[in-house]
Design brief:
The chain contains 10 helices and 13 strands. It has a 7-stranded parallel β-sheet with strand order 3-2-1-4-5-6-11, sandwiched between helices. It has a two-stranded parallel ribbon with strand order 7-10. Helix 5 links the parallel strand 5 and strand 6. Helix 6 crosses helix 10. Helices cover 41% and strands 17% of the residues. The chain is an alpha/beta fold. The structure holds nicotinamide-adenine-dinucleotide and uridine-5'-diphosphate. Nicotinamide-adenine-dinucleotide (NAD) binds next to helix 1, helix 4 and strand 5.
Length: 311
């Protein structure tokens, strides 16, 4: 039985990864400080004899024996990571240093949740791993983007200096069950607004694009990457691209909602076009997203209906 440590375990991806790794017969240790994570997401595991949870801030060192570490701890939604940008930056930088030090000491394999945000407002399309990015280092998204870029730098230096094999997953917009109603990202906002009959808030003119990956496909990619010996950064996502305006109409259609679209100011430095080139993940990991957007979004709508009912 493998012992697997997940930081950010109470969050959207962390709780789905916990479920999947427990189902596969592993022992899972979760770590989280509930900055954006929800206690509700942990409920299904708390009585599982193969699960342990520690409330901890990854900015501070920790000492836990494990075979593998998934370092997911970091607020991921712009409204949350911009609320306390210094905390966000510290979480990325000290968080990865603490995970790398633990990996160096114990020999645990380590995977970092990096992000498509390392490409910033990309000048190439679709985005591949060779692109160095176009990030505003002084802007309101920099605490997240530059924090994640610095974390990648640290991983590559630890790998070179100490012979570690730490992995970098550049995750593109992912959605699904266990997202927080108040998360603030586009998928949760639009579905919750549509279900409640509230206005759908489109930022800017809605011509910017994102490409959406369902959670089970992302988990497959993360696990494949952890198993591999690939140490170069790998894009994980689904190239299924929508403009935000079209995405709003799509959600209205699937929820059969009569909500209206309203247009609000576009946040600063909001990337214009985002679509992953996943050829590296396909060739090196055999990764292939399988879930059609319609199925993934329908599952997510059903999930949000239950969360709204509980409020
Ligand atoms: P999330 O906000 O739902 O989960 C993040 C978790 O980390 C939360 O439970 C939060 O409480 C915890 N956390 C934050 N700071 C912490 C700290 N200092 N110490 C301990 N725990 C802390 O976000 P998510 O979507 O599940 O994202 C998980 C990871 O994946 C993040 O690192 C994020 O940057 C990355 N990522 C996610 C996406 C996506 O589309 N979901 C895309 C790119 C990258
Ligand atoms: N967005 C929007 N309305 C919302 C939330 C987000 O129009 O209520 C837009 C946002 O400006 C961005 C895209 O949707 O262009 C994706 O935003 P999200 O916060 O989900 O993630 P990002 O990819 O920007 O980190």
């Amino acid at each position: 039985m493998k012992k697997i440590l997940i930081t950010g375990a109470a969050g959207f991806i962390g709780s789905n990864l916990t479920k999947r790794l427990l189902e596969e017969g592993n022992f899972v240790i979760g770590l989280d400080n509930f900055y954006t994570g929800q206690k509700e997401n942990l409920k299904p595991f708390l009585n599982n004899k193969n699960y342990k949870f520690f409330e901890h801030n990854v900015i501070e060192p920790y000492d836990i024996e494990a075979d593998e570490i998934y370092n997911l701890a970091c607020p991921a939604s712009p409204i949350h990571y911009q609320k306390d940008p210094i905390f966000t930056f510290k979480t990325s930088v000290f968080g990865i240093i603490n995970a790398l030090e633990l990996s160096k000491k114990t020999g645990a394999k380590l995977l970092q949740a990096s992000t498509s945000e390392v490409y910033g407002d990309a000048k190439i399309y679709p985005q591949n791993e060779k692109y160095f990015g176009n990030v505003n280092p002084n802007g309101i998204r920099a605490c997240y983007d530059e924090g994640k870029r610095a974390a990648e730098t640290l991983i590559c230096d630890y790998n070179r200096l100490y012979g570690l094999n730490a992995k970098i997953a550049r995750i593109f917009n992912t959605y699904g069950e266990n997202m927080d109603i108040k998360d603030g990202r586009v998928v949760s906002n639009f579905i919750v607004q549509a279900l409640r009959g509230e206005d759908i808030t489109i930022y800017g003119e809605g011509n910017q694009s994102r490409s959406f990956c369902y959670i089970s496909d992302l988990l497959e990619g993360l696990i494949l990457l952890m198993k591999s010996d690939v140490t170069e950064p790998v894009n994980l996502g689904n190239p299924d691209e929508f403009t935000i305006k079209d995405f709003a109409l799509y959600i209205l259609d699937l929820t059969k909602s009569s909500s209206k679209c309203v247009y609000m100011p576009l946040p600063l430095d909001d990337p214009h076009k985002r679509k992953p080139d996943i050829s590296c993940a396909k060739t090196k990991l055999g990764f292939e997203p399988k879930v059609k957007i319609e199925d993934g979004i329908k599952n997510t709508i059903e999930y949000f209906k239950t969360r709204i009912d509980k409020q």
